[in-house]
Amino acid sequence: MITEVPGAAIEGQGLSRPALIVSDLRFSYPDRQDVLKGLSMSVMPGERVGLIGPNGSGKTTLFLNICGILKPSAGKLIVLGRPVTDGDFRSDVGLLFQNPDDQLFCPSVHDDVAFGPQNMKLSREEIETRVMEALSVVGATELATRPPHHLSGGEKRMISIAGVLAMRPRLLLYDEPSANLDIRSRRRLIRLLQASEQTILIASHDLELILETCHRVVLMDDGCVVADGDAREIMTDDRLMEAHGQEKPHSLMPHQTSHHPVR
Question: How many distinct structural domains can be found in the chain?
Fold first, then answer.
C-alpha cells in the first residue's frame, strides 16, 4: 500500500524495535534553508529500503544526518536504539559516500579498506581477515596493493563498498552505489544487496536496481517524504512518479509485440 503523507509513520509494526527512527527532522545549510522539512520515517531491522527522488530532494543530507556528520536543527534521530550524537564514531553504521574520492585517501586499497577496522581497535589478525573478506566479496582482491587514485571510477566504487563492509555494520547507507559500475560489477552489487541480512537504505537514481533489491520505497521531494510503501506500487504510479521528477522503470512498462503481418 502506498502512503502519501508529509511524513511516514514513526513507529514500526510488530514487536521488534525499529533500527532507525527519524522524527520531524529538519536541517538547513548556511546557503540553503529547509533542506529537510520535518522528515519522518522508520525502518525495521533487516529491511532494505530504497530512497528515490529528484536531485536536491534531501537524500544525501538525510544520510549525513543519520551518521552524525551533520547536525539537524530540530527533530529526533534514533539509530539502533541510541540517539545520534554529533561527531560520534559509530562502527555499527556504514555510509557509502556518493563520490568515492571522498572516501578513499590512503596510499593503497588495502589500507583504505583497513581504515575502519583499525579505528575499531581490532587485532591485526582480525583487521587482515576483514580486509581480505571484504575485497573478496566485491571481487577486488587483486587490487589490494594498488593506489586508489590509479583505479577506474567503477573500481573506486567497489573498493569504497569493501571499506564499509569491512566494519560489518548493522545499518548500511548506500548513496548511489551503482554509479560508474560496469554490467558485471553492477550485477555483483545487486547479488550482494539481495543476500544481505543487515538493515539497508539505498539512495539511487538507478530505479531498476532499487526494484531488484528493495521491497519498500520512500519517495522524497523538497525535503519531505511524499510516499512510502511497496516499491512496485509506487514506481508504477505514473502520476506520482512524474509529479516528483521520476520515470517508471523500463521493466515495469508493458511490452508491446509487433503485429505486422509476415510477408
Answer: 1
